[in-house]
UniProtKB/TrEMBL annotation:
Its EC number is 3.4.11.2. Residues 110-193 form the Aminopeptidase N-like N-terminal domain. Belongs to the peptidase M1 family. Residues 549-863 form the Peptidase M1 alanyl aminopeptidase C-terminal domain. Its cofactor is Zn(2+). The keyword Hydrolase applies. GO terms for molecular function: alanyl aminopeptidase activity. This is Aminopeptidase N. The keyword Hydrolase applies.
Length: 864
């Protein structure tokens, strides 16, 4: 292989290649002399040979140069070590040694935001998945668990606060205005959970007494001006701690728990032991700048990271192929927590919407992979909706099959059995089997096989015998590397409804385990209506032979809120897809169902708002063999207009009636805002002459961001003087606050407006746009690439814009650049012209010399 081919082809890491580590590292002492321009890191590792072998010690490194290497106190000469692909290789004679290294770092030049970096005057770290090797030489793999002692020294004026994992031990002043602190973490942990923060931070302090009486000091550290925006996060943290004790019997295990908010962060947040580091958008919230969705995001992410203390930290992953072990389970836990804090029905609807918007497309495209992947080139590319959200659905199915008591027996066993270990997905499934007394042999296929199963349901009724036959069949589509699939074990919750009495004949969970299976129900006098995949019991696509009348019935009478919502969505999908495909279906059923839902006094506002919302353009695209973005947009727009116009008095009345006198975060108040925004949406869609003015009034007079941003979004979709005014006012009011300015970029990039593509191009040159902040990049280009109509502009301009961004961003921040690739990879789903334009942009990216492994992997796979 010539050198170019080697450079162009990053190594593939395979699950089957896993070997136990050659050397263990029971203890680590780190000494940081911190400075943004030049930091030194001295590391002392106690290493122990693992088993009988004579292999050298290999310490991973990424961009590091050893300034000193010592073994048992003796400095080695350069002939005694060498570097191999960045790693330090040391032959060692004995069974145990102390290895010491010294390296230098330049945090202020670290734009990848992996390892030790500077953000807004702070120094902070991000080590998952492979960032620790950018800080010091170390066997950077999650199955090496070590006890850490960390000393940090820094300029006291610039960095008065010094934090690391575990508990604080000692601190003091040094010379030349410097000071130092020592932190110890008594719990052995993988290096991806290492963290430190240095900076000028203020603290929202609180405390939590655990179920065994341990007094835990809680701290949320932010810039002083942001302190008032941390109350919601603190409430969420205390609620999470109490919830994990109550529901899982899991108690916090250190004396302090700190959270730090940083402005520049590649993902949402990070569960470092005792020192969670957050993207500030998931900590800071106040009514003027955060929407209800943002508040829920803060609550959910604070909980997620906290829950990792058990599902991830106390029990960690053996290797990165097991990532869903911690992520799928922790998402499942945070979803249930959020449901308990608010509405179970609405939370389930939202979670399924997220799964369908992010994971289903992934699972049907070139980047599809199993929940437990078999191989990767760059692990950062595998922090996906499949690992997280589909992974959570797998846990949910097991919980359903076991029932609450046996499921908790399973999780207790899992935590007890594997506490302090690096475990596998298989370990989790086995704990479920042993603790819950169930055979999950076939269920394991969910971890192995990619692709969203399609379940077909055919119901027939025999009036003479009173028998109902339900034939369920399953097809799992081919995915990359997996042309053929075996039938899976799919739990499908069903109910049959009597059309006359509307009675539910009984809820049942059917286990579909074969390609095709018949289920029989007796004593059903008249043909019933089928409610299927209730609660979204399995992450599958269901095709049924239900009529629009059946769906209308369910949308009014199903007693499972998810199924009721789903019936309404399906009713709408059938109308829209029919129309786009040239086979019009009567729209009036949709209008009637919306009306019925609006006036049903038994329903709460948040549910109503979900139920009456039209499926997104992207979701409609997913229902079609070839996506036609223009036709989808036109059809959806027309239906929205009709619903708006026919029910105009209702929208007007609701919009006026749901106006609140004062701001509250109660579920009722949040539901009212959601429904009020939906009403405004339809009122404007109706074409009523006063629509834009009503939206502007809401924009202008709102005492909260939920209503203000919604009004801005509604105006941004149309053409009016109010639109221009609102965009300007918003900018002038919020341009000093980065998180809120992100909303300004995002709302415009999301706009369903024919000029969005040109506007995004302009916004990319705006003085406030920067490639150095991942939130800003996502706000503009991430939002834009999720705007199907705009991104897939027939000119191909949208593709070029995103490709330009990827190329410019890759040298700065490859992780964030790589996350912009997937929308371009969906070319097979579009017409030949668009497909060619998309492929051309992928080719253009691929031809760039020096491309990162991150972008290279995504682009190559996307071209296949
Ligand atoms: N474990 C975190 C996600 C995370 C992954 C990688 C990161 O590095 C850039 C950051 C965060 C979680 O699940 O919250
Ligand atoms: Zn996580």
């Amino acid at each position: 292989m010539d050198i170019h081919a080697a450079a162009a082809s990053p190594a593939v890491i395979r699950r089957s290649d896993y070997r136990v580590p050659d050397w263990l590292v029971p203890d680590v002492t780190l000494d940081f002399d911190l400075d943004p321009a030049l930091t030194t890191v001295r590391a002392k590792l106690a290493v122990a040979r693992n088993g009988g072998h004579d292999r050298p010690l290999r310490l991973d490194g990424d961009g590091l140069v050893p300034l000193e290497v010592k073994v048992d106190g003796r400095s080695l000469t350069q002939a005694e070590w060498h570097l191999e692909a960045g790693a330090l290789i040391l032959p060692l004679p004995g069974a145990a040694h102390e290895v010491e290294t010294l390296v230098e770092l330049a945090p202020e030049r670290n734009s990848k935001l992996m390892g030790l970096y500077a953000s807004g005057g702070l120094l902070c770290t991000q080590c998952e998945a492979e960032g620790f090797r950018r800080i010091t030489f170390f066997p950077d793999r999650p199955d090496i668990l070590s006890r850490y002692s960390v000393r940090m020294a820094a300029d006291k004026a610039c960095f008065p606060i010094l934090l690391a994992n575990g508990d604080p031990v000692e601190q003091g002043d040094g010379e030349d205005g410097r000071h130092w602190a020592i932190w110890n973490d008594p719990y052995p942990k993988p290096c991806y959970l290492f963290a430190l923060v240095a900076g000028d931070l203020s603290c929202n302090r609180d405390r939590f007494v655990t179920m065994s009486g341990r007094d835990v000091q809680l701290g949320i550290w932010v810039k002083d001006a942001d302190l008032p925006r941390t109350t919601h996060a603190m409430e969420a943290l205390k609620n999470s701690m109490a919830w994990d004790e109550r529901v899982y019997g899991r108690e916090y295990d250190l004396n302090v728990f700190n959270i730090v908010a940083v402005a520049d962060f590649n993902f949402g947040a990070m569960e470092n032991k005792g020192l969670n580091i957050f993207n500030s958008r998931y900590i800071l919230a106040d009514p003027d700048t955060a929407t209800d969705i943002d508040y829920d995001g803060v609550e959910g992410v604070v909980a997620h990271e906290y829950f990792h203390n058990w599902s991830g930290n106390r029990v960690t992953c053996r290797d990165w192929f097991q990532l869903s072990l911690k992520e799928g389970f922790t998402v499942f836990r945070d979803q249930n927590f959020s449901a308990d804090m608010g509405s179970h029905a609405v939370k389930r609807i939202e979670d399924v919407r997220i799964l369908r918007a992010g994971q289903f497309p992934e699972d049907s495209g070139p980047l599809a992979h199993p929940v437990r992947p078999e191989s990767y080139m760059e692990i950062s590319n595998f922090y996906t909706a499949t690992i997280y959200n589909k992974g959570a659905e797998l846990i949910r199915m097991m919980a359903l099959m076991l029932g609450p008591e046996r499921f908790h027996a399973g999780t207790d066993l899992y935590f007890d059995r594997h506490d302090g270990q690096a475990a596998t997905c298989e370990d989790f499934v086995r704990a479920m089997e042993d603790g819950g007394n169930i055979d999950l042999t076939q269920f394991r296929l969910w971890y192995e096989q990619a692709g969203t199963p399609r379940v077909r349901a055919l119901l027939s009724h025999d009036a003479a015998t009173g028998r109902v036959n339900l034939v369920l069949s399953q097809i799992i589509p081919p995915t990359p590397g997996q042309p053929e699939k075996r039938p899976m074990a799919i739990p499908i919750r069903v109910a049959l409804f009597d059309r006359e009495s509307r009675a539910n004949h009984g809820d049942e969970t059917l286990m579909l385990t074969r390609s095709e299976q018949r289920f029989t129900f007796q004593n059903v006098a008249t043909a019933p209506v089928l409610s299927i995949n209730r609660g979204f019991s399995a992450p599958v696509i269901v095709d049924t032979n239900r009529s629009q009348a059946d769906l209308a019935f369910l949308s009014a009478h199903d007693d499972d809120p998810f199924a009721r919502y789903e019936a309404m969505q399906q009713l709408m999908v059938n109308v829209l897809v029919g129309q786009i495909g040239g086979q019009p279906v009567d729209e009036s059923a949709v209008v009637d169902a919306v009306r019925q839902t609006l006036i049903d006094p038994a329903l709460d506002s948040a549910f109503v708002a979900e139920a009456i919302r039209l499926p997104s353009e992207a979701y409609l695209g997913d229902q079609m063999p070839i996506v036609d973005p223009d036709a989808i947009h036109d059809a959806r727009d027309a239906l929205q207009h009709r619903i708006g116009a026919e029910l105009e008095p209702l929208w007007r009345d609701m919009h006026a009636r749901l106006r609140a006198n004062s701001f509250s975060l109660s579920p009722a108040a949040k539901g009212a805002r959601k429904l009020r925004n939906a009403a405004l949406h339809y009122l404007v869609a109706s074409g009523a002459a006063d629509g834009p003015l009503t939206a502007f009034e809401q924009f202008d007079s709102a005492d909260n961001m939920t209503e203000r941003q919604a009004a801005l979004g509604i105006l941004a979709n149309g053409e009016s003087p109010e639109r221009i005014a609102a965009v300007d006012i918003f900018y002038n009011r919020y341009c000093a606050d980065a998180l809120t300015l992100d909303k300004w970029f995002q709302t415009q990039a999301f706009a369903l407006h024919p000029d969005t593509v040109d506007l995004v191009e302009k916004l990319g040159r705006h003085k406030d746009f920067t490639l150095n902040n991942p939130n800003r990049v996502r706000a503009l280009y991430g939002a834009f690439s999720g705007n199907q109509w705009a991104f897939h502009h027939r000119s191909g301009k949208g593709y070029r814009l995103v490709a330009d961004c990827i190329l410019a961003l890759d040298p700065i921040n490859p992780q964030t650049a790589a996350r912009l690739v997937p929308p371009l990879g969906r070319w097979k789903r579009f017409d030949a012209q668009r497909a060619a334009l998309m492929q051309a942009q992928l080719q253009r990216i691929l031809s760039q010399p020096g491309l990162s492994k991150d972008v290279m992997e995504q682009v190559r796979k996307s071209l296949d």
